[in-house]
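If your schedule permits, I should be very grateful for your opinion on a structural question. Kindly check, if you would, that the fold set down in the tokens agrees with what the sequence suggests. Thank you for your consideration; the sequence and its tokens are set out here:
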Amino acid sequence: MPTFSRRTTRRLLAGAALIALAGCDADGNFDFDLRNFGNTGLDTSAAVRQAVNQRPEPDARGVISYPTYQVVVAKRGDSVAALANRVGVGAAELASYNALRPDTVLNGGEVLALPGRVAAATGAAASDRIDITALATGAIDRATTTGAAQTTTPAPAVSEPIRHKVARGETAYSIARYYSVDVRSLADWNGLPADLSVREGQYLMIPTPAPLVRSAAAAPVTSAPGQGSATPVPPSAAQPLPAANPPAANAAVATPPAANLGATRTTTAARMAMPVTGAIIRPYEKKKNDGVDIAAAPGTAVRAAEAGTVAAITRDTDGVPILVIRHDNNLLTVYANIDALTVAKGDRVSRGQTIAKVRAGTPGFVHFEVRDGFESVDPMPYLQ
């Protein structure tokens, strides 16, 4: 049975960003979870959503200062050069540090990392200075505690946000899941555009978690060990256990051959057609393999499973395509491990139309997925 190599897994992960955008509605509220391509063991289908602090307010120039770095918040219509001039840094240096060009026009609220520290503005907002003070306050309070019961609870220290540099293939969704924060909070803190796009080399601040607020409820009720627990009834010995006749250790075990659905399916009854004719060599398994792998010789024509529109075509760093077709009823199909595409984004395709060929490899196969809205589903009910 084939297994995905790290290289194949990277290719599939790289395609997840554009596939997610292909599934977005007009408001950009669609979120594909394709980080489970291949047997990587990752489980991000239920990413943690924890409460976060509000981003500190910038000073009059848009600068937010932290103990080890500073960022600057753009105003609507600012270019990188205009923003650099306002805070007193070189335009080329600021642009290069943030993987931009000096003439790039920024979105209102977009955050850029400063390559070095700038002097505090006269009359800077208190929030621009509170971070270092808050960090020190916790240490001072702990040092002056004499052991007596405190009458008040000190305010929690504001921690410095982690600064993440976006790597190739990463998306706002994958970064938010990695740090266990909501993607909208990540967008608000960094002024991301409506489509939540990020660029390689961009610096993002990871929202800091809000302190856990515990209510002054009644003290927890404790009980003696075993109190309130039902005593299990032991199994009766009146009825003897059934006789066990295990097969001999050297008995041959019959292994049924893999089903060749391409040869036995009824084409008129199935909701979708097989993209290639071949046996299923790797079945669907939720959170481990979000589709099926269908054996086929390299160069075999890959066909559209159903009529629809080519929603997205993306290529990884090795130039290997991943293709997505949008169908009626909010369904999408995904085709990977292919090359020699015969369609382009936006093309209408018919059921059974050739869209690509099986990529060279041992063994040759096509990775095929069906997605219903947000979720991957087992393709087999659609193909049988």
Remarks:
- Residues 337 and 366 are 6 Å apart (CA to CA).
